[in-house]
Amino acid sequence: MKLFTYQVVDASGSTIKSSIEAESIEEATASLVSRGLYILKISQSSNFSAIFEGLLGRKKVKRAEIIDLANNLSVMVGAGLPLLTTLGDIGAAVTNPHLQAIIAEIKQSVEQGTSFSDALEPHARVFPDVFRRLVRVGEETGSFERSLKDVAEHLQRMEDLSGSIKRALIYPAFAIATTLGALAFWMIYVLPKIIVTLKGLGVKLPLLTRILIVTSNLSQRFWYVGIILPITLFVLIKLFKQTERGRYLVDLAKLKLPIYKLIEYNRLLALFAEQMRILIVAGLTVDRTLNIVSDIMGNVIFQQAITTIRDEITYGSTIAEALKRQKVFPPLLVRLVSVGESSGTLDEQFSFLARHYLKTMDDVSDKLGKIIEPLVITVVGVLFAVIISGLLLPIYDLVSKVGKG
């Protein structure tokens, strides 16, 4: 998806400036025109501007705000209020001006005859795939209120998990930041003074000490590289992810990285099982369900596997057989899906699997700090042992020579 910024005039004559995600400028234009908007200007945002907008955090909508929005929509629509009235009331109560403007645009589109799901599409950067897809399913199947509840529950689970992971990483992150700060202080300010003293004593410096001297000199001369390099790497990875090959490799790396893969893999399995349950209960056919789930997954490896499964089912394969041929799905999932198919309890099996993988993911996130903590302590200990050894070796040599003399 590409990001396009636009300036349009609506039916009331008001000028609106915003952005929309689409595959091409033609698709973006068609989407705006279908909403009854007169386009004054539209252009594709550069990759750099999109990245730096994210870095600066401008026009940000938090996931908690989207969860509240879904919950409020579900309650108010379930109480019998019309969608337009609901959107108006929610928009008036929202404190985030950017989200308020988005809700106003969505309300305006719905007033002009656009479906709610179509009105969400131009705001794909705010409303995640799972939100937009489930809303569309709810509209098509007459389970709009239930779909909104499912969206809110799913996003809340992801928010809770994200919070537990962040809490688990607080100590390791603090330890790493403190260590890097201490190392920088030693290499830039402390070591140079000690080295001058050692050189003044005429001591022959061992290899380890000479390496420390070179490292210290480089740290003093090129200190700014430590700031520029991480930012450059971040931007390059973001740009790389926007290519088809780059996205594939990044998604593959997420499933291979030690420790992180345990969380990501179980998250994807839980997402797959949960969405399969929701869509099957909603009455969608298996091939349509797999189409939607593939779009929601957000991981190329899983998307390709699910697309292959859908094609195999179309040609007569059972879901379990098709899953078994894809290595990304574990035996437990395949076995329970097979049981569900044979017993007619597929939705129940997917519900159990979703709970199982979510619990596994919670357990891993709870243990994350305990797993990383000894690694951080070991690395910190080795680094400082090297520095202290580099400083003590020449002093030891000096003391030895004095003793012999």
TrEMBL record:
Membrane-crossing residue ranges in chain numbering: 168-189, 222-240, 375-396
Compartments, as annotated in UniProt: Cell inner membrane
UniProt topology in membrane: Multi-pass membrane protein
Keywords tagged on the record: Cell inner membrane, Cell membrane, Membrane, Transmembrane, Transmembrane helix
PANTHER family: GENERAL SECRETION PATHWAY PROTEIN (PTHR30012), TYPE II SECRETION SYSTEM PROTEIN F-RELATED (PTHR30012:SF0)
GO CC, one annotated term: plasma membrane
The family this protein is said to belong to: Belongs to the GSP F family.
UniProt keyword annotation of Cell inner membrane present: yes
Protein known as: General secretion pathway protein F
InterPro entries referenced in this protein's UniProt entry, alphabetically: GspF/PilC (IPR003004), T2SS_GspF_dom (IPR018076), T2SS_GspF_sf (IPR042094)
Domain Type II secretion system protein GspF, residue spans: 70-192, 272-394
Chief localisation class: membrane
Keyword Cell membrane: yes
